[in-house]
Amino acid sequence: MEVRSARKTEVDHLARVWHDAWHEAHARIVPAALTRVRTFANFRKRLEAALPAVRVVGPPGTPLGFHIVQGSELYQLFVAAEARGTGVARALIADAEAMLAGKGVRTAWLACAQGNERAARFYEKCGWRRVGTVINHLRTEEGPFDLEVWRYEKALSPRG
Asked: Is the dihedral of CA 3, 87, 147, 99 positive or negative?
């Protein structure tokens, strides 16, 4: 499964994937105030800003999922509902891990919303381990929003 850089023409489609997958997984487990500010426009704006770091799997114009890496963090990983169980998420996480290792990251980390059991099981199957909880300082258009999340880490081997 090929993982490639996202195209500017795919931002709207990816924003819909992100919006729908985020709301499906998070709306029932995070505070309503956060759900309210996670609009399609919010996801679109964030994707546009992160576009150089967005990697996708799927057909040009209609990718099935994406990831974003920031520093030593797997910052975002979302897959469209119709692509779950097809290997898209595994391809994306493997690509993210390779990118992080290629940058010299020895211990990668990610934040997972408390209660997002499906994502937690997936990360654990991929060799990530829950190391505790942390406060994730989110930025929203209404200002900062602190959310307690599960922190996952994975030791990475340097690429040679």
From this structure: negative
